[in-house]
């Protein structure tokens, strides 16, 4: 083994594979050192709010704030303090207190409990993740809107249970993705006021350590950090974190649904779409011809990993009495992980969509190959006007199943059936077996969804210089 420091044990931190499991933004949000800086910022905010209320001297708050910079602390001493004390915050507090000038460190963490600081820090992390996800989702919506609009009327094969169903406008597929993402934007907006809130309730949720000023302190503390104000402490009420984690997993799931559709439609048997490819990209170490949909597969992997984190977060909802650190310690793993995976999934699928090509000719060819099969509903409805729907279904069922068993044309068997063919004139029969005339409301539905998306985008422009 080399003399490496052995500090990259998680796949998201791998110098070789980490970029497939996390994003630069997610790694920055959940950086180990950055987390401790965030806790220092929270301690400084607490001290400042307490000084405003006369709970501690103003000079104490100034000294605490001036010292709340991670580069001023001995991080080795912090780590040793954590290991020695067996406590997740005391090591930092002791080193921080010693770094504060003129005894001002005596006022650090006054009246607060460890979980107040750590839950508030996690709320700030969640806020940053939501900000990042908002930008990625907006960019995905923008790209999908264009894709759906450009191919609203492109004839394609609709499939159910992996079998030919009916002709559709290809744009209806991305319109479905778009509609789902728009629902996620509602979830993201609605969960913020519930989830992105501070924690400052003291050892058992009573705020007793803050005397009579606990409620006013909570307001000032929360507003100073840009967080919502909870009605009361939520040390064991972990529904907020469970909601966030589940929503992230759902977003990754939507990205995976898109990715899986692209992956399947890019198979040579279909060849209806293709991912962008560049010279030098290798699909196999032994088969030089391979152009694998690796990015689509990675999105599905991210969704599966994200879904697993949602289950963990739900187990964290079960805690006893007024404090239970088991939930918090689960969240320290599942909140960063679901954020890495969901942000990665959305970033990758947006790249896939940016380079996606829809092969209109192949879409049409695939419909033509099964034109008789996908005409069965239209034929049934036409005959139903003469025979009744149920009887027409039975007759067309027998014809179409016989056609598939004998590998002959449904149209041929219809023409050979004197009773049924007599019910339809030649012009009507020609229309029935023309797939392009049976797209239903595909085009209108697609354009309606795109209009909704573009209206939403116009009201929330993508920030410049985002991810």
From TrEMBL:
GO BP terms, alphabetized: 'de novo' AMP biosynthetic process
InterPro entries xrefs: AdenyloSucc_lyase_C, Fumarate_lyase_CS, Fumarate_lyase_fam, Fumarate_lyase_N, L-Aspartase-like
Keyword terms: Lyase
MF-aspect GO terms: (S)-2-(5-amino-1-(5-phospho-D-ribosyl)imidazole-4-carboxamido) succinate lyase (fumarate-forming) activity; N6-(1,2-dicarboxyethyl)AMP AMP-lyase (fumarate-forming) activity
Cross-referenced PROSITE patterns: FUMARATE_LYASES (PS00163)
Xref: CDD domains: pCLME
Gene Ontology, cellular component aspect: cytosol
Keyword Nucleotide-binding set for record: no
Domain named Adenylosuccinate lyase C-terminal: residues: 371-450
Pfam families xrefs: ADSL_C, Lyase_1
Protein name per its UniProtKB record: Adenylosuccinate lyase
Organism: Actinorhabdospora filicis
């Amino acid at each position: 083994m080399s003399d490496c420091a052995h500090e990259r044990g998680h796949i998201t931190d791998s110098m070789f594979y980490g970029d497939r499991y996390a994003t630069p933004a997610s790694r920055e949000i959940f950086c180990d050192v950055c987390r401790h800086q965030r806790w220092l910022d929270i301690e400084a905010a607490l001290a400042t709010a307490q000084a405003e209320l006369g709970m501690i001297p103003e000079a104490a708050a100034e000294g605490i704030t001036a010292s709340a910079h991670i580069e001023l602390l001995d991080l080795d001493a912090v780590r040793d303090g954590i290991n020695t004390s067996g406590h997740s915050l005391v090591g930092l507090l002791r080193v921080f207190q010693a770094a504060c000038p003129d005894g001002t460190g005596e006022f650090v963490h006054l009246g607060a409990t460890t979980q107040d600081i750590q839950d508030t820090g996690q709320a700030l992390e969640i806020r940053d993740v939501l900000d990042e996800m908002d930008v990625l989702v907006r960019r995905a919506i923008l790209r999908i809107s264009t894709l759906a609009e450009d191919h609203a009327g492109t004839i394609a094969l609709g499939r159910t249970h992996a079998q030919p169903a009916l002709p559709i406008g290809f744009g209806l597929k991305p319109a479905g993705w778009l509609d789902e993402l728009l629902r996620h934007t509602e979830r993201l907006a609605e969960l913020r006021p519930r989830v992105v809130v501070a924690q400052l309730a003291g050892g058992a949720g009573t705020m007793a350590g803050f005397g009579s000023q606990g409620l006013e302190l909570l307001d000032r503390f929360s507003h100073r950090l840009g967080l919502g104000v909870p009605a009361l402490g939520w040390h064991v009420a972990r529904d907020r974190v469970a909601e966030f984690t589940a929503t992230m997993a759902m977003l990754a799931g939507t990205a995976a649904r898109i990715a899986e559709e692209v992956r399947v439609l890019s198979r040579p048997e279909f060849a209806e779409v293709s991912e962008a490819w560049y010279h030098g990209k290798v699909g196999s170490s032994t088969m030089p011809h391979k152009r694998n949909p690796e990015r689509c597969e990675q999105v599905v992997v991210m969704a599966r990993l994200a879904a697993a984190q949602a289950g963990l977060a739900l187990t964290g909802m079960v805690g006893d009495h007024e404090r239970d650190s088991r939930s918090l310690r689960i969240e320290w793993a599942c909140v960063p992980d679901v954020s890495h995976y969901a942000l990665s999934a959305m970033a990758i699928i947006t790249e896939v969509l940016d380079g996606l090509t829809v092969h209109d000719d192949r879409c049409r060819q695939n419909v033509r190959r099964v034109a008789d099969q996908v005409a069965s509903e239209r034929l049934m409805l036409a005959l139903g006007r003469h025979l009744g729907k149920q009887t027409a279904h039975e007759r067309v069922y027998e014809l179409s199943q016989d056609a598939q068993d004998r590998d002959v044309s449904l149209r041929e068997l219809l023409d050979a059936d004197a009773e049924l063919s007599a019910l339809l004139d030649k012009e009507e029969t020609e229309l029935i077996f023309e797939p392009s005339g049976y797209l239903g409301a595909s085009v209108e539905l697609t354009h309606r969804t795109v209009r909704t998306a573009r209206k939403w985008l116009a009201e929330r422009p993508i920030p410049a210089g985002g991810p």
